[in-house]
Amino acid sequence: MNRNIFKAYDIRGIYPTDIDEDAAYQIGRAVAQYFSLKNVAVGRDVRESSPALFSELVRGLTESGADVIDLGLATTPMVYFAASRLPVDSVISLTASHNPAEYNGLKIALAGAVPVGLATGLSEIRDLAISGEFSVVERTGIITAEDIKPDYYSYFASFAELGDRKFSIVVDSANAMGVLELPIYDHFAGNVSVTNIWNDLEHPFACHEANPLKTETLDELRATVREAGADLGLAYDGDADRVGFVDEQGEIIPMDLMTALIAREILRKKPGSTILYDLRSSRSVREIIEENGGKAIQCPVGHANIKRLMRETGAVFAGELSGHYYFEENSTAESSTLTAILLLNLMAETDGPVSSLVTATHRYFHSGEINSEVADKDAILEKLKEKYADGKLTEIDGIKVEYPTWWFNVRGSNTEPLLRLTLEADTSEHMEQKKVELLGIIRGTEV
Question: Using one digit for the tens of pLDDT, what is the confidence trace for 202-258?
């Protein structure tokens, strides 16, 4: 198998070139052996390659002695939900998330949805799978099936507090796994009417890319919200562990500002709680958390880092610039639909359009993340540290330098020769000026 399919936080590659049935079998053997698994639950997405890969993954798990609970088709948040609801040592989501149809992969977590990454067992699993040096086991595991979805739907629907408010929303599932999240909204159909676009699992991926981080994928959602006069639009990514939103005017709600809005709603119920925010987020996110009585802690990028830090700090919620939102209600794992429900709760409580909530949160001018290909990432980072030595430096993920009226973060890609720049300033002109300045240094074009 191609060892490069083992990424920092998951396994992912093109089928069958990078990942095939043999690889799935070997990985199943390796996961079960490395963690001495007794019971594991496995869910899968709707990709054409998923049934064959699932079959061989399960064969590998059972031939290493693990009993398998087949969750069937399931979103990644459903799989994480199973990690705390079923008597299992581990859960696996067979998915390639937002990647195109020719990809597939695995997301592995231990009981309680504790993620497995290269630093927490995935590198050893990789080496064991490639070597094929598996132990002889005394028994072959058995396979049973369980549908976690009814419990999942009723549990998350219970968080809706909409009173007598009526909302119309538009949901774009991109013909991917978000379709399986839709029954939650049926639980409060008296309050919420749903217009669905691209919700056909019979023709998966036969539309735009399932990636709300790419704003062009939201074009049809934005237009439909405007045409329908809807109150809100939302778009799931491929495995439904990320979600993007647009307001009633069809304008995209920045994903970091969603962290601030959801934090506000959570702190109403859980005053004084700790909330994590991605270090690339707007400064207003921290301000709003603190204004609402919360303890704000900035965190590095990446779900494994965030979930670990949530457990260490006792945080009840975390938000990431990429549209991942993490809740203690799902074992510190993602819950995209709970994010939507809590936003509707906030809209019901404030009795106004979501655009007004966003406007009150939008205090600064943010660049978004800008990629630059560089030959020597470390040398550039050192140069930036030297030039901006008079600012407040933190190094929890790349470097972040803060000044009273602006800040920037530069971090390296784990897999590519890229540096990723994010910055924010008090005015649009200031932000643009600093963006040009920083990109000149990063790309070697400074005058």
Answer: 999 999 999 999 999 999 999 999 999 999 999 999 999 999 999 999 999 999 999
Question: Comparing C-alpha atoms, which of 237, 210, 249 is closest to residue 320?
Answer: 237
Give the integer Cα–Cα distance in Å for 117 and 399.
22
Q: Choosing from 97, 173, 282, 336, which is the catalytic residue?
A: 97
Set out the domains of the chain in order of their start, with CATH numbers.
Answer: 3-147 (3.40.120.10), 151-253 (3.40.120.10), 365-443 (3.30.310.50)
247 SS3 class: coil
Structure tokens belonging to residue 439: 């990109």
262 vs 300: CA distance, rounded Å:
19
Residues in Cβ contact with 376 at an 8 Å cutoff, skipping those fewer than 6 apart: none
User: What does the alpha-carbon distance between residue 328 and residue 46 come to, in Å, rounded to a whole number?
Assistant: 27
Smallest CA-to-CA distance from 437 within 404, 412, 401 is with: 401
153: helix, coil or strand? helix
Q: DSSP labels for 367-381? A: ---EEEE-S-HHHHH
For residue 183, give the 3-state DSSP assignment: helix
Beta strands in 97-239 (DSSP E): 103-110, 114-115, 143-145, 167-172, 192-197, 232-236
- Distance CA(306)–CA(317), nearest Å, equals 10
Task: Tokens 């649009």: give the residue.
Answer: 428
- Whether the predicted pLDDT of 298 surpasses 80: yes
Dihedral sign computed on CA atoms, order 126, 130, 136, 140:
positive
Q: How far is CA 342 from CA 146, 157, 244, 263, 330, in A?
A: 28, 10, 14, 9, 14
Could you say which DSSP state residue 339 is in? H
Q: pTM for the whole thing?
A: 0.96
> 97 catalytic, yes or no?
yes
